[in-house]
Amino acid sequence: MAFLLVCMCSLLLMFLISYVLQLFGDARRRLPPGPTPLPLIGNLLDIASDLPHRSLSRLAGRHGPLMAVRLGTVVAVVASSPSTAREPLLPLLRDAVLGLLHRVSEMSAASGGGAPVQVGHAAFAAMMDMQWRAMFSAGLDRGASRVLQDAARDIMEAAGSPNLSDFYPALAAVDLQGLRRRFAGRVGTVYHLVDEQIERRMRRRREAAGDGEARSDDDLLEVLLDMSEHGKDDGKVAIDKDLIRTFLTDIFLATVDTIASTLEWAMAELLQDRETMRKLQEELKNVLGSRTHAEYADMDRLPYLRAVIKETLRLHPVVPIVPNVAEEMVEIHGHVVPRGSTILVNLWAVHRDAEAWPEPNRFLPERFMLRQHGQEAAGRALGTATTEFELIPFSAGRRVCLGLPLATRMLHAMLGSLLHRFEWTLPLEVEENGVDMSENLGFTMTMATPLQAIAKSI
């Protein structure tokens, strides 16, 4: 008993010594200010009181737009304003531009009926089928669609769940929460369906080659298989089947959920702001006329639609907190960020910074419209074309979302078509109680309560 007591006291003393040394070490390294961490758990309790982006935003209100927090044993520096987000992201943007110029130089040298609709669910299913056709030139049957939808949502939820190994890297090999097993199992489900398509296509290509027939498929899988064959023929590093499967799965998962959730947020905002919806539908009517759907080619003539989507992405960034790792010691606003530290750019807070955005919590697409004197009101392009970093829903630099071109095209076309083709209203119960705008955070930020609305053909 005495031995156990001695051991417990020794452990407690070690924790206290470690805690004191930690505080002195942080002071010597000139870390940004932040909440005082507790022994062992750091500031996890400060963050666990709400969704992470909201908790960090409140802490930033007390400690400043650049602050240091301890997540268990991991030091994280959180940027919550345009100016602080600029410094860690601008070098990444510069690297991306230089990398692009280098690559281009090399290439140049080488030469219904009134029942409520679950808006997010419908958008998710439509995006899933569209993306599957783009990859494989084949639609999804109902059974496969249901399996894929369940797997994709579970993957996104598992990917965004708090993981102990993120806060205590020494536990990474243990997988105490089972998140890695859950993630691997659901990804395996998607891999199986993708593998079926790859095997079917490779078999068809072999048969066509044996019969001397020309191949008729024109999709992403065909491009990747052609690249794989040409790589072998040219003696270059070939794209193998595993790489093709992984690439197609990543593209599929990243595209489907992000576009569907953003579309749902946009509709939720518009259904609560009838005047904004009326103005947008009037613009669509004037431009599209009797056509049934919008196309990306129409976007230059639909400035208010572009403004609505920008404002939606400002208030509801797909991924509210973007993590980066400091590959070397850097200095931000006079504070030192140690090498190996996690840098969390809180896009949710950046996009609601009152100094950059008047009435930051209000849905106001007009802020992106041209003013009388030809100046935009606080709006910029979607992050990659701005150096101000007030609006970066897709991050910036090398970490910029690879789905940006597809996402912007699909969001404009899908939202424009929905509003031009249908008249939308809320169910009576939702109208009386209000739309639940609370958030559910997985890998992407979705609505905690799926949006339901009534669509009537115009």
Automatic annotation (TrEMBL):
Pfam families: p450 (PF00067). Heme binds at C401. InterPro entries: Cyt_P450, Cyt_P450_CS, Cyt_P450_E_grp-I, Cyt_P450_sf. Keywords: Heme, Iron, Membrane, Metal-binding, Monooxygenase, Oxidoreductase, Transmembrane, Transmembrane helix. GO terms for molecular function: heme binding; iron ion binding; monooxygenase activity; oxidoreductase activity, acting on paired donors, with incorporation or reduction of molecular oxygen. PROSITE patterns: CYTOCHROME_P450. Gene3D superfamilies: Cytochrome P450. The keyword Lyase does not apply. Signal peptide: none annotated. The keyword Acetylation does not apply. Its cofactor is heme. It comes from the Eukaryota. Belongs to the cytochrome P450 family. This is Cytochrome P450 family protein. It comes from Oryza barthii.
